[in-house]
Write a structure and sequence with these properties.
It is a single chain. The chain is built from 9 helices and 9 strands. With 237 residues, it is an alpha/beta fold. Strand 8 and strand 9 form a beta hairpin. The longest helix has 18 residues. The protein is globular, with a radius of gyration of 18 Å.
């Protein structure tokens, strides 16, 4: 399977502070990969390098042979949090309409289509401020789909959502991956999510602890390296 994303010896620093050190991995087209690691391990910094907001201090990222900044029109990004003034009088449709694209074929007529795709078509006329956490995340995912993106990046997409809604969000991402044949990168703290949905997992703690199939690389030793001596695997019921 041909490599779609290549991360080569990536390092990134904020001034004198080293956030990422010598990260290297490859992602095939249409794969779902997960990134796990403790708080402060560089997960969001890595995502911002992947979407072209940051440029590596050392190393290189190539997506379909291009640098992320040059490929950014093909990347959809769903952040962990989207802060806005809750008093702003804006409907879901108006919010979606702010996501513009240079391609003439990608007009606002796609709004209804993508909202329907994520099961949020009935929310079109609702005020954005009235949405629940799960509804808002569906709208954010729909927004990322508007212009036929080839790479979707999700930073903790189930943040603020109850456990039942959390699995619905991940099922939705899997559905998009299969139907649209879109490559997906997900940051998640939930190991059960990683095992169920991801084909590969990147274990990150500033440097790369491991990268491979979840059932192979996620073990007691890996978790100790990521989260400390007290961490371990447990079985849920």
């Amino acid at each position: 399977m041909k490599d779609f994303i290549e991360v080569k010896n990536l390092s990134y620093s904020y001034g004198d502070f080293s956030a990422l050190e010598n990260i290297f991995f490859k992602v095939a087209k249409e794969q779902i990969i997960a990134i796990i690691g403790p708080n402060g391990s560089g997960k969001t910094t890595l995502l911002k390098n992947l979407i072209g907001l940051y440029s590596p201090s050392k190393g290189e990222i190539l997506i379909a042979g291009k640098k992320p900044f040059d490929y950014r029109k093909n990347i959809g990004y769903v952040p962990q949090r989207f802060d806005f003034d809750r008093q702003t009088p804006i409907t879901v449709k108006e919010f979606m309409g702010l996501e513009r694209c240079s391609k003439h074929s990608h007009s606002l007529k796609n709004i209804k289509k993508v909202l329907q795709e994520v099961g949020a078509d009935k929310l079109e006329k609702q005020q954005l401020s009235s949405l629940s956490g799960g509804q808002f995340q569906r709208v954010m995912i729909a927004r990322s789909l508007l212009h036929e993106k080839e790479l979707l990046i999700f930073d903790e997409p189930a943040t603020g959502i109850d456990m039942a809604g959390e699995h619905t969000i991940y099922d939705l991402i899997l559905k998009i991956n299969k139907e649209r044949k879109t490559t997906c990168i997900i940051v998640s703290h939930e190991l059960n999510v990683v095992n169920k949905y991801a084909e590969k997992v990147l274990c990150l703690n500033k440097s790369m602890v491991c990268y491979g199939q979840p059932e192979v690389v996620i073990n007691e030793e890996t978790l100790h390296k990521l989260y400390g001596v007290g961490a371990g695997l447990y079985h849920s019921h």
